[in-house]
Amino acid sequence: MLLTIDIGNTKISFGIFTGNRLAKKFDIATDTYNGTRLKRLMPCVPIAGVIACSVVPGKSRAIKHDVAQITGKRVVCVGRDILVPIKNQYRFPKQVGQDRLVTAYAASKLYGYPALVVDAGTAITLDVISGKKAYLGGMIVPGLKMSLDALYKDTALLPYVQLSKPNNLIGTDTKSSILSGVVFGLSVLLEGMVNKLKAKFGASAIVVGTGGNIHFLSRYCKIFTHIDPDLTLKGLSLIYSKI
User: Fold this and answer.
1) What is the rounded radius of gyration, in angstroms, for the C-alpha atoms of the chain?
2) How would you class 164 by CB atoms within 10 Å of its CB: exposed for 0-12, middle for 13-18, buried for 19 or more?
3) Which residue of 57, 150, 183, 212 is 20 to 30 Å from 67, comparing CA positions?
4) Catalytic pick from 6, 31, 81, 99?
């Protein structure tokens, strides 16, 4: 069995694969991670290999140590020990997050290309894979919760609002106005960006949605060809199979 690890800003996702099938998945909040909790959640199964990608360098060392203690296997780190097998046309290739490259590669392998990948996590990223399977770059905007948090933290009078389903398009009080603005606003923003990209790369471009908030966002944003919340873990599995 293969253990895959996606270390994100909000959560750390762990996936155990049997062949190409995701047999088990569990998450640990990034800010509360510790080795004891990982040991408690890890199933007692033989692990043949471990691969990880991370956008939180401060957590990577502890997780690598803990995983090695629990599984007896060295963690293969994407970007350091192994490269994502996709042509990276970012102006400064080292600046792009490894998770974005992993999801781009997974989308092109599993769903085809040209492709647009929307990752609805802490931030919302939109990445572009060309018809020649090259990673071209993309866009980054604040995510749903980040937008709600920013309105609360950076203003004197606006209240804190938890992410939930807006009751109406037009808010009738401050909290419902914030919720409507963030949810519908980000949905329209993504629809507009996807339409602009499809005008450039062709209307048949595949749109793959992933990330922790993708099921919520897809209720309001009708642009997706495929929804795959486990795309990063699947990409890590695909990459490890090439070692």
Assistant:
1) 19
2) exposed
3) 212
4) 99
pLDDT tens-digit series, residues 143-199: 999 999 999 999 999 999 999 999 999 999 999 999 999 999 999 999 999 999 999
- Give how far the C-alpha of residue 130 lies from the chain's centroid of Cα atoms, to the nearest Å: 20
Strand order in the sheet with 21-29: 21-29, 11-18, 2-7, 49-54, 75-77
Question: Annotated catalytic, 99?
Answer: yes
Buried/exposed code over 56-79 (b: 16+ C-beta within 10 A; e: otherwise): eeebbeebbebbeeebebebbbbb
The rounded distance, in Å, linking the Cα atoms of 217 and 154 is 24
Compute the average pLDDT of residues 188-216: 94
Instruction: Compute how many other C-beta atoms are within 10 angstroms of the C-beta atom of residue 138.
Output: 20
In this structure, of 87-91, 182-186, 200-204, the range with the lowest mean pLDDT score is 200-204
Task: Tell me the C-alpha distance between 176 and 195, whole Å.
Answer: 28
Interval 228-242 mean pLDDT: 96
Pair of tokens at residue 134: 């090259």
Average pLDDT over residues 91-106: 95
Q: Where are the alpha helices (DSSP H) in 9-56?
A: 35-41
